[in-house]
Amino acid sequence: MSRSSCNYKGFWGCDSCCDIEVHRRSDGKHVFIATEAPENRGTSVTNFAEQLATAMRRQHGMKPEDVIWIEHYPEAKDRRKESFDLVRFAVVGDTFRTPVWTRITEQAVDELMAGKRNVEDLIPIPSKNLSQGLRAWTLALLSGRRREGRPEHSHVEGCGLRSAERETLMLNAQIEFTIGGAAAAFCAYHIPRVEM
Question: pTM of the prediction?
Answer without folding.
Answer: 0.65
